[in-house]
Amino acid sequence: MSSASAAITLNAGALRLGDLVHFARNPRLEVDVACERRFADGQRLVAAQVRRGRHIYGVNTGFGKLADTVIPLEQLSELQHRLVLSTAAGYGALLPDATVRLCLLLKVNALAQGYSGVRAEVVQALLQLLNRNACPCVPAKGSVGASGDLAPLAHLVAPIIGHGEVRLDGKVMPAAAALAALGMQPLRLEAKEGLALVNGTQVSTALAIEGLLAIEKVFAAALTAGALTTEAVRGSLAAFDARIHAVRRQPGQIDVAAALRRIFSGCRRIQGPRVQDPYSVRCQPQVMGACLDMIRFAAGVIEREISAVTDNPLVFAEDGDMLSGGNFHAEPIAMAADMLAIAVAEVGALSERRIALLVDQHSSRLPPFLVAESGLNTGFMVPQVTAAALASENKSLAHPASVDSLPTSANQEDHVSMATFAARRLRDMAENTRGIVAIELLAAAQGVELNGAGIEAPGLLWVQEVIRGRVPSLVHDRYFATDLRLAADLVDEDFFRDFCGKGLLPSMSAS
User: Fold this and answer.
1) Active site residues
2) Quick check: 17 and 303 in contact, CB under 8 A?
3) Angle at CA of residue 203, ends 78 and 296, nearest 5°
């Protein structure tokens, strides 16, 4: 994306993770004028192929198992119109407006590359919705991730043909009323346009992007919380020595160990009071490093998918070809989301184990449950139970979605990716881990005040000040939910990502 005086100009096919930050800050978008020629060339090829009588899937044939049914020329527009209506069969709660806007951006980015055979008017209609903050109402459930995100994409695009519902100025209204308020007319779709609109992986990808960004935040907060716990229990820093990790040769592990060494810079303690610390402290580079490698790999897949053209068939106007393939199959996103799910579950599991360490007086050598007058006060006893509940829930959610497949369309679509659910559950998992890490931050901050030595690492003094600026020390039992909410809000900010260092996490490297 490049900045324009009044809007952001979309360089179609060149979007990166970092560009999405700029998009969020400047919601107005326009398409590069070079796209106009691509639209015209693609449309001419579609029209020429139809005139020659060639049978092209979804252009002059039925869909799915009905692909062998030939549609007369005079009904091609109606075919596309009915496809959008019949495919708008989603179910459940609506996707948040921010997610819908991201889906619109990704759909525009794909169509504007000129391989989908749609007119400029179609893309401009979607841009109008985006720029006027008119958010189609899109049910979250109903896609199996092949042929693309059919149901949610149909709900996304139905308003430009006058159907469905739109949230405009905080009110949900029929699409026809929203178009009238925006000064827009419903479009009549032409050959192939309906199929290009409902076919693709944009919803799965948008959900995966949101999950990735949320997971990056909890990863950075968990890395910091782990360091503060290490300080609270006066853990050995020898386990973070660069030589140990160099011979393992795993890049994520090497980078996490380096980040921990930076955090502990200036701390003179090498060996703690124990011969060996528990794994949740000693093996932070190995576990968090493996998670970081998975996050980075998944981010690469997602970033490529941001600019992927994933409808079918595809129009290669420069070659005079229309080719039917399977780019709509969202297996890459499904597997990437599964990797992120495993990673965020492990980040939370490790954090929960460190909380358990902190509250156990025999292991931590701290007061029972991190509070004076234990017995009268229960301190962090039940917060650790909450962390265990959240970690356990994540274990169930981490089951790979991509290994499941239910055939659809009378077995024509006999293997599907389940990418939409794979990506959608990431928000819940990241939220669970955010709660776990928030509890660890509070417990570790309490621990360093009770360990008799305080904080020896200068960098962690800053972290402690930030935490205590939000939540005071726990002198005696109080309503804990408020403390937890304030700490969770801190996790959701950019403080910990900045503290851990630019370049550690993928979206920071891409920005």
Assistant:
1) 57
2) yes
3) 150
